[in-house]
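note to self: the first set is below, dont mix up w the second
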Amino acid sequence: MAKLTSRAIDFTLNTRWEDLPGAVKHQAKRCLMDTLGALVAGAQTPVAKIMCKSALEQFGGDQARIMVSGERTSAAGAALVNGFLGNALDIDDGYRNIKGHPGACSLPPLLAVAELAGDCDGRKFLTALVIAYEMGIRAGVIRHATYETYHSSGSWGAIAGAAAAGRMLGLTAERIVHAMGAAEYHAPIAP
């Protein structure tokens, strides 16, 4: 494993809530509330009805909850719908250096996986959210430095979701590398 990849995986696996600075803990809570607010507001849009209907038809199951409506579908279906809800009004958080929305990419898969994992408390959840933001933002900075054209949140956001989900599910270092690699490989490169 390359040195920088190893550092990223170490951060993903070993970051502890207790070790995070107070300002980071405070900001994590703010980011959570901001993204949840955007998601609740987005649930009132036409795209919410369309995506919810599609997920219920195409992603059967009852692994995770679609926020606000409370309907259940597969974890992938819930993450998809909740991601659309979080970004539906384009009022979700943004980070200028990556020209994107880390919350709408990070929170939906984390919500779904938290239900799958079952044993999730606030500290575990917020730690995984911090990991998602850190990994997603760093991947976004690299993406924008590597390609001349603008790339949307989707081009790096899947890496954030994979890191958070891998942490929440207790994946090994090798599996997190593969999950983040698959997320990066299949992420859209289109502007």
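second set (the one i keep forgetting abt)
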Amino acid sequence: MIAGLIRLLTGAQGRWAGVVPQPVQRIYFANHTSHLDFPVIWASLPDALRARTRPVAARDYWEATRMRRYLARDVFHAIMIDRNAAAGRDNPLRPMEAALEAGDSLIIFPEGTRNLDEDAGLGPFKPGLFHLARLFPQVQLVPVHLENLNRILPKGRFIPIPLLAAVTFGAPIQLLPAEDKREFLERARAAVGALEDAEA
């Protein structure tokens, strides 16, 4: 019911370009422009995939109110990450590693924070995706591009504006032998950017 409501509010439907919605373990990595990003990706997945896919979410936002906390924990089964933790205090990748070890898929946003200017293009990717790709080579890495989400729920607003969103899933990539962190992250970033070009 929640997934259907999200699709109704945003008009979002998953477009699968170079990949099919199979029930295999994946890391879906996407551009990040709105707090609606992970709910829309989650809602765009077929039921069988959605049941084993856990979004990674910012604790400070999703635990700020009782309703958000309920949605994050009981509906989305999100992995909550503390963005304000002291450097070196906790490894933010450890809960993601545990979920992958348990056989779940993930939705992550390698930019690390929302990019509010779509015209500026994707921001640099943080190294978490590289480390997960290295630790879990059997997990498919699927690029995802979101369009219009920052217009549907702009920063500072709480009520969505009715527009149509686009969610495009691209062909999986993998960490290549001898590929270093910088090369891999740039290639992953380019894979998400290429989906935007394909939508145009």
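remember for set 2: The mean pLDDT is 84.
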